[in-house]
Amino acid sequence: MNHDKQQLGALAMDLKRVALGYHRGSTKMAERFLEEALKRQRELKFIKNPPYLNKLLKSLTKLAKEKNKEKLAEDALMYSTLFQNYAIKLRQP
Q1: Which domain holds residue 7?
Q2: CA 16: distance to chain centroid?
Q3: Least CB-packed of 4, 21, 74, 93 within 10 Å?
Q4: How many other C-beta atoms can be found within 10 angstroms of the C-beta atom of residue 6?
Q5: Rounded to whole angstroms, what are the CA distances from 81 to 12, 28, 59?
Q6: Which domain of life is it from (predicted)?
Q7: Both ends of the chain: CA-CA distance in Å?
């Protein structure tokens, strides 16, 4: 469970960096962290997760196909918050 929490936390941070990168105009950085987020997403697919979390993980692939960078940054920040909240929930008894 601790490893899952770390993976979700890392995914949340990668997505937050994607949002910040696009917001600041640093497209190369944002694209690199988006690649990292998608790599983590593939790793998390094989872990037993609640159905809503699996649905969120699947929808990350749509995020990479988004052409509007502002929308992509907003969505990345939203997903980041959702994954971070779930990782925090895993920590609580």
Answers
A1: 1-90
A2: 8
A3: 93
A4: 12
A5: 7, 22, 15
A6: Bacteria
A7: 12
Output DSSP code: residue 48: -
Nearest to 22, CA basis, from 77, 80, 65, 83: 77
CA distance 38 to 42: 6
Q: How far apart are CA 93 and CA 79, in angstroms?
A: 24
- Number of separate domains in the chain: 1
Q: Which residue reads 């779930």 in tokens?
A: 86
Token pair listed for 64: 């990479």
Report the candidate in 75, 48, 77 with the shortest Cα–Cα distance to residue 62: 75
- pLDDT tens for each residue of 35-80: 999 999 988 876 777 888 888 888 898 888 999 999 999 999 999 9
